Amino acid sequence: MSKLNTLQAFRCIGLTGVVIGHMTFAEEKYSGATLLPAEIKDFNQLFIDWFFVVSGFIMVMVSRGRFQVPKEIAKFAYARVARIYPPYWVYFFITLAVFLIMPQWINSAHGEPNLWKSFFLVPDKNLPLVMVAWSLVFEMWFYLVFTSLMLFRERYLPWILASWAGLIICANLAFDTSSFGPVLRLILHPYAIEFVMGSLIALFYFSPLSERVSTRVAIGMLLFVPLIGVPVGYNLGLFRGEGLVRVFSLGTLFGLLTIGATLLERRDKLSVPNFMVAIGDSSYTTYLSHLLVIGVIGKLWVLFELASPSLIGNIAFLVIMFSAVMIYGLVGFRLIEEPLMNAANNLGKKIFKKKPAPNSAALAARHAE
User: Fold this and answer.
1) At residue 52, does pLDDT exceed 60?
2) Taking phi first (over 0 means left), then psi (-120 to 50 degrees means alpha), and beta for anything else, what does residue 35 get?
3) Which biological processes are named by the entry's GO terms (predicted)?
């Protein structure tokens, strides 16, 4: 399956939103003034919802034609594990080293992390050691469920996905799931609905029905979300909390954005700049590392006594922070994540290598025995 550059562009945009959102906290902590508006903190979290929608789309895209084939299911599961854990463990151990030396620098306001649960991305009442890895806990749960769905016929996937979403809706309407333990809360969390919506959108994208969507309608979807949907939803308070209203609102908006953009790309009506594709490719490394990079820049800023209430000084601080995060992401992807992916892919090829078919002479000898 060829890569959809629009999905990488979405990762680029979403990543930029997350980074800028976290920069607001660093600006308050390390700088002598604040330029970034406080509202950015509210928008920061929305981009994680976008990642969940895109993740559901990609899971359908990479699993097509592989259902009910045990070896393909195993390869799919291996690819998901190999994609998430090795790069994550690199930054887990870097963060662990900092935590052991200066524990107050790591998640000091969110309770002490459970190290083994953090290492394996197991749900816990506190945030993981790598704070942003809370979203990876959800990702791994989504991957586990989706892998189990591949045991069924692929044509049943829309109905099974709808049933999964229906179960979560019923549970959240009947109970206050936020009071449940970390494992049950993960299983019943509404975030899964966004993953389901992304998956259903992908099924629509790959169906003949998608051709009935005119280019004009696809452009309308693309423009509706940033110009009308997000401003109206924000003003109405639809994006607050983590409940059903939030996930349906954001799932719908980001779903429209995703299907509109991917349809336009398929029809050669939309192209993505190469730099956005590159940042999208490196988004996982940047996501895992950006808090560390921001923290280093902030502490250096204070160490060299550069913090001041001046406008120019604050602009310089923000530009340096953002540039450092993005540059490290691109470099870290090339030097760390990409080699790890290549090594994992090569190992997977060896593990799932087809056994050569026995030749006729060997078969005759075997029957003779």
Assistant:
1) yes
2) alpha
3) polysaccharide biosynthetic process
